[in-house]
Amino acid sequence: GEDVEQSLFLSVREGDSSVINCTYTDSSSTYLYWYKQEPGAGLQLLTYIFSNMDMKQDQRLTVLLNKKDKHLSLRIADTQTGDSAIYFCAESIKGTYKYIFGTGTRLKVLA
Amino acid sequence: GAVVSQHPSRVICKSGTSVKIECRSLDFQATTMFWYRQFPKKSLMLMATSNEGSKATYEQGVEKDKFLINHASLTLSTLTVTSAHPEDSSFYICSAQNRQGYGYTFGSGTRLTVV
Description:
The structure holds two protein chains of two kinds. Chain A has no helices and eleven strands. By secondary structure, chain A is mainly β. In chain A, strands 2, 4, 5, 9, 10 and 11 form a six-stranded mixed sheet that branches. A five-stranded antiparallel sheet of chain A has the order 1-3-8-7-6, with no helix packed on it. Chain B has strands at residues 4-7, 10-13, 19-25, 32-38, 44-51, 57-58, 67-73, 76-81, 90-97, 104-106, 110-114. In chain B, strands 2, 4, 5, 6, 9, 10 and 11 form a seven-stranded mixed sheet that branches. A four-stranded antiparallel sheet of chain B has the order 1-3-8-7, with no helix packed on it. Chain A binds chain B through residues 4, 8, 31, 33, 35, 40-45, 48, 88, 92, 97-99, 101-104, and chain B through 4, 6, 32, 34, 41-44, 46, 49, 93, 95, 97, 102-109, 111.
């Protein structure tokens, strides 16, 4: 079945880069997404990548996709304390509206 | 654009009562909305797909008689937790497909506490 996995925690110092990793199992995914969830809030779409792309950069965010290994990563450059949140990767299931979410990675940025 | 409003943000109810949660697309029409449940420190689990003008499609293991979904208009879907029990306490989030056709806009979530 479909499964998306992430490490649960990541701690970085302010100004450093953060790299959040995600592995997925459904090779037919068309889009893969990164969402940010701040405490007590809903999910905010950060960025997405189409499955035929290897990389996408959007300001401080860089998404890398290794389709062969089914590995997705999100790199946040110059991490700030406001980046502290839970980050979810998600894959869309081809032919459906469904998303499969990862378990979420809690990013803590130390001042 | 593509704002989804969810109400209420927090609700506390007594066991045995019912609670209704609203999900509205404010500046776009959403023929399909989704309801998720998030357990503490866990990922989001899709509960059901809400289709305007027709019955909702529930995921396996989700009790349709317990979690009533109504999608009466193109901008409103409601989730009613009936005869709530403490184990129904959770964070419920709705989402709708945005205008661009990719990605979904999420509501801000509803924290339900059943006492």
